[in-house]
Design a protein that fits this description.
12 strands; 316 residues; 2 domains; Spore Coat Polysaccharide Biosynthesis Protein SpsA, Chain A
Length: 316
């Protein structure tokens, strides 16, 4: 079995994808046994990739699929002991692979390792993993702050950023639910949070590797106007927040943090009413997916090996 399989779902940005692939092959250690899978998600990039990187294993979709379904297909078809989920707008630096694998191999309970992602200026944090608040709002740790040694320690984080996350195959098989690794009810956003939360409930750690660094261009960040983000993406993010909580949160923790959750929901409701009423259209989708989500929750909680108190410590 290979040491590492890399899964990338292509977008229309061909030059970013090629730059991403260049960074992978140029910075891969000669001794590392790995393969790279690129999904052509109805973007017509196959010929371009074949020309620039014929060593890549291409998967050409016959229909457009979401983040979860695409990466799930690669996980099933690949054979690496570890699977690196990557966005095509991530460009790795020297030592990236070695550090990710070192942190993974140092602890047999590490199921996911997240790198240090920097913004294009190379000085500002994009993500060092996720922080989750008592309101259940989740943010990328350090985002927008200058990298001045603030996050230079190998440590646990609550969840990983899906732009680049190394997953142990053993963990993926352990948390697989209804044949899915990432939840295919999610088209885009929160898949990383959901997978990390499920992994934690099964006793796996999510680690941060500060010496594994990469640049992330990121299509959506807090400093960009929300009206530049497609409506369907905003609805997906809105929907998936609630589905993630329904699936993974302990009822006792929800009750304990209810004032924080309610206050966040009141503020969100006012915002949606006056600024983005179209987000209410996500609720019919939530209701439609609720029966299946509750079945998933029942399975997750039945198999959980970590209790409410151990998860609660991550809510800040």
């Amino acid at each position: 079995m290979l040491e590492l399989s890399i899964s990338i779902v292509a977008t229309d940005e061909r030059e970013s994808l090629i730059k991403c692939l260049d960074s992978l092959f140029n910075n891969a250690p000669a001794s590392m046994d790995f393969d790279v899978h690129v999904v052509d998600n109805m973007n017509n990039i196959s010929d371009h990739v074949k020309e620039k990187h014929p060593e890549v294993k291409l998967i050409k979709n016959k229909r457009r699929m979401g983040f979860a379904e695409n990466h799930n297909n690669v996980i099933r078809q690949s054979s690496g002991n570890n699977v690196l989920i990557m966005n095509p707008d991530v460009f790795i630096k020297k030592g990236f692979f070695a550090e990710l694998l070192r942190v993974m191999e140092a602890d047999s309970s590490a199921g996911i390792v997240t790198p240090k992602l920097l913004m294009p200026d190379g000085r500002t944090f994009d993500s060092t993993g996720h922080i989750i608040y008592k309101s259940r709002r989740t943010v990328d740790r350090g985002q927008g702050k200058e990298d001045r040694g603030l996050y230079d320690k190998t440590e646990e984080v609550f969840s990983a950023c899906g732009a680049a996350m190394l997953c142990r195959r053993e963990m993926l098989e352990d948390v697989k639910l209804m044949g899915e690794y990432f939840d295919e009810s999610f088209q885009l956003y929160k898949e990383d949070l959901d997978l990390s939360w499920r992994a934690r409930l099964r006793g796996w750690k999510v680690m941060y590797a500060p010496d594994a660094t990469a640049i992330h261009l990121r299509g959506w960040s807090p400093d960009k106007p929300r009206n530049k983000v497609p409506l369907w993406i905003r609805r997906e993010s809105f929907k998936n927040r609630y589905l993630t909580m329904i699936k993974n949160d302990h009822l006792i923790n929800v009750l304990r943090d209810l004032p924080f959750i309610l206050w966040h929901e009141i503020k969100a409701l006012v915002y949606v009413i006056f600024r983005e009423p179209h987000l209410f259209l996500a609720w019919p989708q939530i209701v439609m997916q609720l029966p299946k989500t509750l079945r998933k929750r029942a399975e997750i909680m039945k198999r959980a090996t970590v209790g409410a108190e151990q998860i609660r410590k991550w809510f800040v």
